[in-house]
Amino acid sequence: MANETGFREKAVYPVLFILLLSVVFVGILALMYRSNEPRIDAQNREAYEKTILSLCADSLASLSGQSAAEIQAAYPESYSEYIEALDQDAFIRPAFAASYKGKLVARVFDITGKGLWGTMRALVATSPDLKTLLGISVYEQSETPGLGGRIEEDWFTGQFRNKQVLGPDGALDLELVPEGQAKTAPLQVRQITGATITSKAVIDMLKEELARIAGLDTEEAK
Amino acid sequence: MTRKEIFLTSAFRENSVWKQILGICSSLAVTNLMLNSLIMGIGVIFALALSSLTVSLIRDYTPRSVRMIAQTLIMAAYVIMVDILLKAFMPQISKQLGPYVGLIITNCILMGRLEAFASKNPPLDSLVDGIGAGIGYTFVLLLISFVRELFGFGTLFGIRILGSWWTNWSIMVMAPSAFFLLALLIWIVNSKYYKEG
């Protein structure tokens, strides 16, 4: 016992103590993370696929006679029935096609851009000819909560629905207008007050990625 | 002090929020929905109780010079466990709580209880103290979110209480209402139950 007390007064004891404590707790955490990883991955995949389905639901609903809500509720059957993953290499990032009885109704692309604080990832649905946006959903971002973080909210993303974004000479410029503006022109989008840079980042991400996808698409067509 | 005394003291008499004014940030942030508050509260109870127990168990071996590092490490480990469990089993709520679960680590209530109580008292007492402080905190969150959700959404735990005639008070959903309500609560409790001196 006297020996042990002596050891505890040595300068190395606190170091060894923290080291041991870290090893024990990090070990437990690593084990726990590993054992839950498949489940977390499955949850993420499900959320991702549901987002794709919800972006295409309106277009599918207009053909199938079901309502958009019914199509979304029928996940995962409806997903495997309507959505097909496209060759990822052709578009560099994941891409999907939604079709009803062989007729292509929408395409969904996974796009990415730089936000104020970090990388943003979004899914964007377009008409088959890429010209019109059907919807966008930001599924990963690290913008300021309550300000830039609002790019996930429906009122913001909803503005992009049915916007013509591709002209004959490539991607069109969207213009940001104040959040409170009552009426918007076709190429105007209400920005988030207090998050000008983030709002701009979303517009830029859309423009760059759509231009890139359109470029790849025509190359593929040739 | 008996265990019951310890529990009552840490949960109500010395309540972390209205008496010690700790954990204010999260009390403001997650109280717009009762469900979020409940889950957050359970997370804090779990992390605080187990950290208290662990800190107390190793208190005789912990060198004074590194005790705070050790406490932070233990807290962080339990909070990450909560985070992993939420991600795996309640992804929806995990997404709604966003960064706040991780921020339990920086919640002063945890550090406060560990340093003030668990590092000086036996394990079972510390466990009771941790659970008590956690329940006291959860109680405050639920009180505030009750008002905010009822007036802001017309619902409680997502179940509609007020009919369609009700016009939602959007201020209740936004941050300012949390400041008003928390201040009111602290004011009322302190003037009613705590006499000066």
**What summary fits the major beta sheet of chain B?**
2 strands, antiparallel
Rg from alpha-carbon coordinates of chain A: 24 Å
Order of helices and strands of chain A: HHHHEHEEEEHEEEEH
Order of strands, widest sheet of chain B = 1-2
Shape of chain B from CA axes? Answer: globular
Mean pLDDT of chain B: 88
The SSE string of chain B, one letter per element, is HHHHHHHEEHH
Distance between the termini of chain B: 23 Å
Q: Using only CA atoms, what is the Rg of chain B?
A: 18 Å
Biggest interface and its residues per chain? A-B, 21 and 22 residues
Number of strands of chain A: 9
Number of helices of chain B: 9
Tertiary shape of chain A: globular
What proportion strand of chain B?
A: under 5%
- End-to-end Cα distance of chain A: 83 Å
SS-based class of chain B? mainly alpha
How many strands of chain B? 2
Which oligomerization state do the chains in this entry correspond to? heterodimer
Folded structure, characterized:
The complex is a heterodimer of chains A (222) and B (197). In chain A, 48% of the residues lie in helices and 21% in strands. Chain A is built from seven helices and nine strands, in the order ααααβαββββαββββα. A five-stranded antiparallel beta sheet of chain A has the order 1-2-3-4-5. In chain A, strands 6-7 form a two-stranded antiparallel sheet. In chain A, β4 (119-126) and β5 form a beta hairpin. Chain B has nine helices and two strands, in the order αααααααββαα. Chain B has helices spanning 3-13, 24-29, 34-57, 67-89, 91-97, 108-118, 123-153, 170-173, 175-193; strands spanning 155-156, 159-160. A two-stranded antiparallel sheet of chain B has the order 1-2. The A-B interface holds A 8, 13-14, 17-18, 21-22, 25-26, 28-29, 32-33, 36, 39-40, 43-44, 47, 145-146 and B 58, 61-63, 65-66, 69-70, 73-74, 77, 80-81, 84-85, 87-89, 91, 98-99, 175.
